[in-house]
Amino acid sequence: MTEPARTIHEVIDRYNQAFRRHDPTLLVDLISDECVIEDTGPAPAGSRHEGGPACLARWSALAGDAGLSFTPEAAEILGDLAVAPWTLRWGTGDRDWVRGVNLIRVRDGRIVGARGYVKA
Length: 120
Prior knowledge:
CATH architecture: Roll
CATH topology: Nuclear Transport Factor 2, Chain: A
Oligomer: single chain
Helix content: 10-25%
Low-confidence stretches: none
Order of helices and strands: HEEHEEEEE
Number of domains: 1
Radius of gyration: 14 Å
Structural class: alpha+beta
């Protein structure tokens, strides 16, 4: 018997856990083969990662980086789209952090797309 697909809430919760716990293994079965990420950097346009393996590699590198502190805020769910704000800290200085938001689209219990934006 096939298990039902995860809800968008479950996907976003697990995605956030991967970054908070620095555990990229939590991402492995969350990302669809057709996933596309539009990243926040480098400025001004960011970078694009296409396909499940490329997206998993990108997010795994970030999630596994113990020098980063990711603090998600409550996501707003609009159908298959999560508007997921967050704060990212990379040091202890007053300017070593940024606020941003990811727009994450989920289909059949897997992430199919994400666009990241930061406040300048």
